[in-house]
Amino acid sequence: MLTVEGLRSRYGRIEVLHGIDLDVASGEIVTVVGANGAGKTTLLKCLSGIQPVSAGSILFRGEALTTVSAHRRVQRGLAQSPEGRQIFTNLTVEENLRLGAYLFADEKVDRDMQDAFVMFPILKEKRNLAAGGLSGGQQQMLAIARALMARPSCLLLDEPSMGLAPILVAQIFDVVKSMKALGVTVLLVEQNAFGALSVADRGYVMETGRITMSGPAAELIADERIRAAYLGI
Fold first, then answer.
1. Using one digit for the tens of pLDDT, what is the confidence trace for 109-160?
2. Which of 118, 149, 150, 196 is most buried when burial is the number of CB atoms within 10 A of its CB?
3. What confidence score (pLDDT) does residue 181 get?
4. Residue 233 has pLDDT above 60, yes or no
5. Are residues 70 and 175 in the same domain?
6. Average per-residue pLDDT for the chain
7. CA distances (Å), 80 to each of 19, 133, 149, 157, 185, in order?
């Protein structure tokens, strides 16, 4: 579904991605793990069209995306839940969700919202409250639900567990795992390597803008180098 080859990107004169190769098949949950500053968020920004690409290619369902604008990528089925949630704090929960569905003006929007409320019941309880009044975990749920309102076939998730209490982290990873049942393919980037690899089919390890390891998630969890560097074992 998603294929990245030789991807490079710069901030000014400084290259931060150095020839990234990865692929995500339809129906998979694939994770990219690595320390803060490894380039994971920049990678997702390149995929979603926010960050310019200096070299390489991005194919989504066989179509080249490198020169396609960000909003056109959403139309094609590629949506992102960004790092730091980036919800609209002065708008209500429901208004945030409806903004996620800005591409659509049909009767399915209300049904999509009800599906979001089934996935995250707390959002239904707080649908008329300002999003800025939600807890950190609830805001993360809202960010994911808002991205799903765009009806993506592939969801890009950027650090969804960041800053959350352990019990909420477990809930968020359960939600990520449930995406398969919804028919949504997921590319997840995370510093929480154990949590991400526990729900993923395959994984990539990124260090200083390069992919240094890849393989089935179960094999990466068992790898002594990964356990020492990222799992604290």
1. 999 999 999 999 999 999 999 999 999 999 999 999 999 999 999 999 999 9
2. 196
3. 87
4. no
5. yes
6. 94
7. 22, 23, 11, 6, 12
Contact 17, 147 (CB under 8 A): no
| Domain end among 151, 166, 200 | 151
One domain for residues 15 and 60: yes
Question: 147 φ, ψ to 5°?
Answer: -65, -40
**Are 203 and 89 in a shared domain?**
no
pLDDT tens per residue across span 14-67: 999 999 999 999 999 999 999 999 999 999 999 999 999 999 999 999 999 999
| Token pair for 41 | 């968020």
Contact status, residue 80 vs residue 100, Cβ threshold 8 Å:
no
Number of domain units in the chain = 2
Cα-flanking dihedrals φ and ψ of residue 201, to 5°?
-85, -45
Phi, psi of 65 (to 5 degrees): -110, -5
Closest by CA to 192, choosing from 139, 140, 230, 138, is 230
Euclidean distance between CA atoms 225 and 223, whole angstroms: 6
- Asked which of 117, 151, 185 is the last residue of a domain, the reply is 151
Q: Where are the beta strands (DSSP E) in the chain?
A: 2-11, 14-24, 29-33, 55-60, 63-64, 78-81, 154-158, 185-190, 202-207, 210-216
Host domain of residue 99: 84-151
CATH number (domain holding residue 69) = 3.40.50.300
Task: Give CA angle at 43 (76, 22), nearest 5°.
Answer: 80
pLDDT digits (tens, 9 = 90+) for 60-96: 999 999 999 999 999 999 999 998 889 999 999 999 9
Residues in the chain: 233
